């Protein structure tokens, strides 16, 4: 076949000069050709159409695999176009053996730096090199003679970590076949792969160990695997695809891409193995998976990836969703994923892809045990997002170096923070003890109340946040400090009442308040802030004005429309003042309550929260209207007085 | 609303400066530079007081015929200077304050990035987009 092919190639060539193929070349090329033609039907992303086209025997190689193969040669696109034209495929419309061989020769020429011309292929050329892109097998054309076991890898242009994988496979191939050749005789570097060059150094160091297990025993199993076939004895690659580490310590492991199956859409999707790997790396940096990695630790770690600082900075910006200078586990996974993608040549996205959002990551991989246990322990009456969310906010408020929660409010300087501190100190340790690391992964942190009251800008430095709270804050006032503390109490104690009394029954007017809200109020001895309480942090920050105390009575009728619990709660407010003992009492049952878990509680609490929010809004509105009414009254009185004074004059 | 936004470091060199593209952007740079004196003056005026007592928003630094320059200083002596167009009468003090607040918040986000060394030029895309949103309103 080779001879015939050679002859045919010779006749098929443009200028008519015979194409001389050495034996090695002939063998390679024919294998490649067979691969392209034969695997068209089984090719992974190429699709059936090419297979159909190539159906009539092996006379033609399907365009898809061929294109992929050419791309694997790492030559720029224009060069490939030139090659395609030159070899005559464009003329005849398909890749026959002739064209294919000529093309391969041209690729070899281009890779050697010769101009892409027919004349170039007349001389002796090394074999063209194709970098492995996909997992199926590996093609390794090198000057050394490991020709057996070569397979065309259909490059997955989009799949991440291809380069890693390639290196790895090449390493293995090399190891088994001829230890002499460096697998990374770098191909003419196409720009997106420039970063692979440093990888090569790392890899060469690791070559001795590539055959061995890599630190993390992840196996890359490509879902789409071309039939390795017989000759891939040396491959052994399929099962144990280990990712070599760039640098030992960094140990970036190539994970198999599950997303290979849907590669056009999801280069940003994290697979299970990847996720496990990331989690392990996270644990190596921070033993508690529920806690943060501080900025400096993460910086040191990611710097090992040898990306440039601006890029790392940008990746951090993308992945640190709550901008707190620390990475939770989902944030860490996202950042790691972005780094790996970048190393593989993907351009960084402008915004965090949806599959890398912390919420998504938490939801998608809920199986991590620590999440579950923490949530369970917390008296998961609250919806996971909200409650941990609040806790999270609390913690973040107080922490720079996230190691030590029960030292909450140290960084808080603002007036409202101090109030928070006093009131929440007791609540915090209780809850913290139960959820030591909770819900950092809650990511509704975006809604986190940049709770600085806007009037006290001095806090802002400490706060490090700057997003507007979700609820439109009417005006910043200092009085909401208490309110926020109340909010937190409410957050922490929601379960109490629910457990105690199914639905909050309309409590008696005074002290013995089983209702949490009431207890909080009493607790705070501050009536009204409660109104403003949007359960989320937003409420806290929100300068939702709670100085509506006076307007309580008028607002009652409005509130009556709301659910009874809230009504009861609100009604209690004005009269509530002396709730101190009640609050204390309610605070104590906390621990006991939290042990219970019921969906009912959850539902009730969400309902309570919503109603309270509505209450707050309405109460606020009411107060404003009252205020206006008063002013108008006063004006009217003033005008009447003037009229009185003027009247005698005019009459006279 | 802003025509030019600048972030000046404690040592009075610019960390970030961006203007609406006009033919004479340099004049905005000059204005910012001259306003630094006014900022220092205002800071030193209340200098002896504790930082907490000092208001971060400095207000109108000085007006020119076409523009007004507002200043804001953080607790770490990083200054924000904003040049706005005088022809916009509806621009109230509160709005300027809120713009500075946003600037400050974005600045703290930039600082949170461990890869950002204080004293470097600010190259954060998020910060850029926030400033752009403030400036685009002019047009």
TrEMBL record, chain A:
Keywords: Calcium, Metal-binding. One of its GO terms (molecular function) is calcium ion binding. Residues 307-342 form the EF-hand domain. The keyword Calcium applies. It comes from Phyllostomus discolor (pale spear-nosed bat). InterPro entries: EF-hand-dom_pair, EF_Hand_1_Ca_BS, EF_hand_dom, EH_dom. This is RALBP1 associated Eps domain containing 2. Residues 423-433 have a biased composition (Basic and acidic residues). Residues 574-586 have a biased composition (Low complexity). GO terms for biological process: endocytosis; endosomal transport. Residues 162-199, 223-243, 249-268, 404-608 are annotated as: Disordered. Pfam families: EH (PF12763). Residues 504-515 have a biased composition (Pro residues). Residues 25-126, 274-359 form the EH domain.
Automatic annotation (TrEMBL), chain B:
One of its GO terms (biological process) is endoplasmic reticulum to Golgi vesicle-mediated transport. Its main location: cytoplasm. GO terms for cellular component: endoplasmic reticulum; Golgi apparatus; perinuclear region of cytoplasm. Pfam families: Sedlin_N. Keywords: Cytoplasm, Endoplasmic reticulum, ER-Golgi transport, Golgi apparatus, Transport. The keyword Transport applies. It is found in: Cytoplasm, Perinuclear region; Endoplasmic reticulum; Golgi apparatus. InterPro entries: Longin-like_dom_sf, Sedlin, TRAPPC2L. Belongs to the TRAPP small subunits family. Sedlin subfamily. PANTHER family: TRAFFICKING PROTEIN PARTICLE COMPLEX SUBUNIT 2. This is Trafficking protein particle complex subunit 2-like protein. The lineage of its organism: Eukaryota, Metazoa, Chordata, Craniata, Vertebrata.
């Amino acid at each position: 076949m080779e001879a015939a092919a050679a002859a045919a190639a010779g006749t098929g060539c443009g200028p008519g000069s015979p194409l001389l193929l050495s034996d090695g070349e002939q063998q390679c090329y024919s294998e490649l050709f067979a691969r392209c033609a034969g695997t068209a039907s089984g090719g992974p992303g190429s699709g059936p159409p090419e297979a159909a086209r190539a159906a009539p025997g092996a006379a033609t190689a399907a365009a898809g695999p061929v294109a992929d193969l050419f791309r694997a040669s790492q030559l720029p696109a224009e060069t490939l176009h030139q090659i395609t034209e030159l070899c005559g495929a464009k003329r005849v419309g398909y890749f026959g053996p002739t064209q294919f061989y000529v093309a391969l020769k041209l690729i070899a020429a281009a890779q050697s730096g010769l101009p892409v011309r027919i004349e170039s292929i007349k001389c002796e050329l090394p074999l063209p090199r194709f970098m492995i892109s996909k997992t199926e097998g590996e093609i390794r054309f090198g000057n050394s003679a490991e020709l057996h076991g070569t397979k065309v890898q259909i490059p997955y242009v989009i799949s991440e970590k291809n380069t890693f994988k390639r290196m790895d496979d090449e390493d293995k191939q090399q190891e088994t076949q001829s230890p002499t050749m460096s697998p990374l005789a770098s191909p003419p570097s196409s720009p997106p792969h420039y970063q692979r060059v440093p990888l090569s150094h790392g890899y060469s160091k690791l070559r001795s160990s590539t055959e061995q297990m890599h630190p993390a025993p992840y196996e890359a199993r490509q879902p789409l695997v071309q039939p390795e076939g017989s000759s891939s004895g040396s491959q052994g690659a399929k099962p144990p695809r280990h990712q070599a580490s760039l640098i030992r310590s960094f140990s970036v492991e190539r994970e198999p891409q599950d997303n290979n199956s849907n590669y056009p859409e999801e280069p940003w999707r994290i697979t299970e193995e990847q996720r496990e790997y990331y989690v392990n790396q996270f644990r190596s940096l921070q033993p508690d998976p529920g806690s943060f990695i501080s900025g400096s630790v993460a910086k040191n770690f990611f710097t090992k990836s040898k990306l440039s600082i601006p890029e790392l900075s940008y990746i951090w910006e993308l992945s640190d969703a709550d901008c707190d200078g620390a990475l939770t586990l989902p944030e860490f996974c996202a950042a790691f994923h972005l780094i790996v993608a970048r190393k593989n040549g993907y351009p960084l996205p402008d915004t965090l892809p949806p599959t890398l959002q912390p919420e998504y990551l938490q939801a998608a991989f809920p199986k991590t045990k620590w999440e579950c246990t923490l949530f369970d322990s917390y008296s998961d009456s609250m919806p996971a997002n909200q409650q941990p969310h609040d806790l999270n906010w609390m913690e973040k408020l107080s922490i720079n170096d996230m190691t030590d929660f029960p030292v909450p409010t140290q960084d808080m300087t603002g007036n409202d923070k101090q109030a928070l501190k006093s009131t929440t100190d007791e609540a915090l340790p209780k809850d913290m003890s139960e959820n030591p690391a909770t819900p950092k992964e809650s990511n509704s942190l975006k809604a986190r109340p940049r709770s600085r009251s806007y009037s006290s800008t001095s806090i802002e430095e400490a706060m490090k946040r700057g997003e507007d709270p979700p609820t439109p804050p009417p005006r910043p006032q200092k009085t909401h400090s208490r309110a926020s503390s109340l909010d937190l109490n409410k957050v922490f104690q929601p379960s109490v009442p629910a457990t105690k009394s199914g639905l909050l029954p309309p409590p008696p007017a005074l002290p013995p308040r089983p209702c949490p809200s009431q207890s909080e109020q009493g607790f705070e001895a501050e009536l009204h802030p409660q109104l403003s309480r949007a359960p989320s942090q937003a409420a806290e920050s929100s300068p939702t004005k709670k100085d509506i105390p006076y307007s309580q009575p008028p607002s009652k009728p409005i509130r009556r429309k709301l659910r009874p619990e809230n009504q009861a709660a609100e009604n209690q407010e004005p009269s509530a003042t002396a709730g101190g003992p009640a609050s204390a009492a309610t605070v104590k049952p906390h621990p006991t309550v939290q042990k219970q878990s019921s969906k009912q509680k959850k539902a009730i609490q969400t309902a309570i929260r919503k109603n309270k929010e509505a209450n707050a809004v309405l109460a606020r509105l009411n107060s404003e209207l009252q205020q206006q009414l008063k002013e108008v009254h006063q004006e009217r009185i003033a005008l009447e007085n003037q009229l009185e004074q003027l009247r005698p004059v005019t009459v006279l | 609303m802003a025509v030019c936004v600048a972030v000046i470091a404690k040592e009075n060199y610019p960390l970030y400066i961006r203007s609406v593209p006009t033919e004479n952007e340099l004049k905005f740079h000059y204005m910012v530079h001259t306003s630094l004196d006014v900022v220092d003056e205002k800071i030193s005026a209340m200098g002896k007081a504790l930082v907490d007592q000092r208001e971060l928003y400095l207000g109108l630094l000085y007006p020119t015929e076409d523009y007004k320059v507002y200043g804001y200083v953080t607790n770490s002596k990083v200054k924000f200077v904003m040049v706005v167009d005088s022809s916009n009468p509806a621009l109230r003090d509160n709005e300027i304050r809120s713009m500075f607040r946003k600037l400050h918040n974005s600045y703290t986000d930039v600082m949170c990035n461990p890869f950002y060394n204080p004293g470097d030029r600010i190259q954060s895309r998020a910060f850029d987009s926030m400033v752009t949103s403030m400036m685009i309103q002019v047009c």
